[in-house]
Design brief:
The protein is of the alpha/beta class. 45% of the residues lie in helices and 15% in strands. The protein is built from 5 helices and 5 strands; from the N terminus they run E-H-E-H-E-H-E-H-E-H. A 5-stranded parallel sheet has the order 2-1-3-4-5, with helices on both faces. The protein is globular and about 35 Å long.
Length: 118
């Protein structure tokens, strides 16, 4: 599942999920904010989630915490432009399994997703 308030970013990540090295990845849902993400996660039950931190309605940190109740075994990769160490640590303590800084290269995203799947 891809969670980001930018449709451009959601579409880019979805496109990259069809690249070599990510054959096991199928995008089952996309959401533009944390509230949509919780709804769609309950329906689609994804194993892997990419999530932005800065979003309207419900931001990434709040969504991460709530998502643990809905999908306790899902692996979450935070994909964010917020680059300070405290932000990354907060995301990891709220349930993220990895952190990728925007802007990222195609190969960086592929490598990060592969690492979470192993």
């Amino acid at each position: 599942m891809i969670v980001d308030d930018s449709a451009i970013m959601r579409n880019r990540i979805a496109r990259l999920c069809s690249k070599p090295g990510l054959e096991r990845v199928t995008v089952v849902a996309m959401a533009g904010d944390g509230a949509q993400a919780l709804e769609r996660a309950a329906q689609a039950k994804p194993d892997l989630v990419t999530m932005d931190l800065t979003m309207p309605v419900m931001d990434g940190p709040a969504c991460l915490q709530a998502l643990r109740g809905v999908l306790p075994n899902a692996r979450v990769l935070v994909v964010s432009a917020l680059s300070d160490r405290a932000t990354a640590l907060q995301a990891l303590t709220k349930g993220a399994h990895g952190f990728l800084l925007k802007p990222f290269s195609d190969q960086q995203l592929i490598a990060s997703l592969q690492e979470l799947m192993s």
